[in-house]
Design a protein that fits this description.
1 helix, twelve-stranded antiparallel sheet, Elongation Factor Tu (Ef-tu), domain 3, seven-stranded antiparallel sheet, mainly beta
């Protein structure tokens, strides 16, 4: 069984949880992707020849190439575990298997979309607290209040999100970010929908053992980026290098505590903002280690102008060598709420931007529960794959690139 450090989930996967403007919808998505998996199917048979396994399952299975599945129940241990689907037909999947196990497999076997191995530290009514799967990491906790009670309007369209250094219960913890002086109640909004009903919204979640990113298209409009996890800091012995990221789905200057739900306001513009409340990423503690909630800017490369995420740049493909150029996105912590000088910095785990002008506009506009994205085979480091996600409808504003293959540092 190969090591598969990154897993990719979509709202249009068969059996995927529905994200909507109802209570606990976000928790259901996070549980399905991070904890339990989904789309469990009984397996009719598994055979293998030359290290290529063929799994037979009933028609309508819904599994797709490049999806990571979890197989269990085989008496032959080599067939159990996580596998990258390399091909499908209406009734079969193929994947690589090591160790030349006997064929066919025996046992009562099942397969499902594999979860990412995170844990739920605490839970309550429409609330959940998650920790990543990196036992050597910060062990910060992501708390979700998906009750719709934090704001009167738009209520269940938005979940209230916080990050804690430690928790002892679903409502009890220390070292909370963001600071209450900036966001009342120490919570950020993670937008789920543009309407308070059960209509499913398009989403993509990409997760590793240390972090995840959730891309949402409320109302099938432009993209919101939310995320949580650990980053590798340049600060020696940094024990607070956790981040909480939210992409606003609002209008105008999106002031603190506003949860307006029309238009798009990402602020991910490749430069430091002079507005303290405009920052959408927070570290667990500031660089001093004494104050909760260091303000992080998500910085792209603005060499070519625009927003630094591929809105402007080189011709694609590069006419000199037919090449594709990209660079990692960077978190930079500001020294003060009014200053623009940076101190602690890090490459954002697994997240890149192209150095070309809107190279991958995607499949048009997110529609229904179908998200807008393109899988780029062989484009990522070490010949791996990216998923390219346009920031705005039609691709204007550039692209995020998420590494689907390599471990996130």
């Amino acid at each position: 069984m190969a090591t598969l450090p990154v897993k990719f989930y979509r709202s249009d996967d068969t059996g995927a949880p529905t994200l909507s403007g109802t209570v606990s919808a976000l928790i259901n998505v996070l549980d399905g992707c991070l904890l339990t998996g989904y789309n469990t199917r009984a397996v009719t048979s598994i055979t293998q020849t030359g290290g290529v396994a063929t799994l037979t399952v009933a028609a309508g299975h819904g599994f797709v190439a490049n999806q990571v599945i979890a197989v269990s129940g085989a008496n032959e241990a080599a067939y159990n575990g996580d596998f990258l689907v390399t091909g499908t037909t209406s009734t079969t999947l193929t994947f690589n298997v090591a160790g030349n196990p006997s064929s066919p497999a025996t046992g009562t076997i099942s397969a499902k979309v594999s979860p990412s191995g995170w844990t739920k530290a605490y839970s309550g009514a429409n609330k959940a607290a998650y920790q990543n799967a990196d036992s050597g990491g910060t062990r910060y906790v992501l708390r979700i209040d998906d009750s719709g009670a934090q704001w009167g309007t738009p209520a269940a369209q938005v979940a209230a999100v916080s990050m804690y250094k430690a928790m002892t219960g679903i409502d009890i913890g220390t070292g909370v970010s963001p600071p209450a002086a900036v966001w009342t109640g120490n919570v950020l909004p993670w937008h789920k929908s543009n309407i308070t009903n059960s209509t499913g919204q398009p989403w993509i979640l990409v997760a590793s053992a240390k972090a995840f990113y959730l891309f949402v298209w409320p109302g099938a409009l432009s993209c919101c980026l939310h995320g949580f996890g650990d980053f590798t800091s340049n600060l020696p012995s940094d024990a607070n290098n956790a981040f909480l990221l939210h992409g606003n789905y609002g209008t105008g200057s999106y002031a603190a505590n506003s949860v307006a739900a029309t238009g798009l306001n990402l602020y991910l513009n490749g430069v430091f903002s002079t507005s303290f409340t405009a920052q959408q990423a927070w570290a667990g503690m500031d660089y001093s280690g004494y104050n909760a909630g260091g303000v992080l800017a998500l910085v792209g490369n603005r060499m070519f102008g625009g927003y630094g995420f591929g809105e402007a740049g080189l011709q694609f493909p590069n006419p000199l060598d037919n090449g594709f150029f990209y660079s990692p996105l960077v978190f930079v912590e500001r020294l003060s709420s009014s200053g623009t000088a940076g101190v602690r910095c890090s490459a954002v785990p697994g997240l890149y931007s192209p150095q070309h002008a809107n190279p991958f506009p995607g499949n048009g506009t997110a529609s229904g529960i179908v998200p807008n994205y393109t899988v780029l085979t062989g484009f990522a480091p070490n010949g791996g794959n990216f998923v390219s996600i346009p920031i705005s409808t039609g691709g204007a504003g550039g692209n995020f690139l998420v590494d689907l293959t390599n471990a996130w540092s």
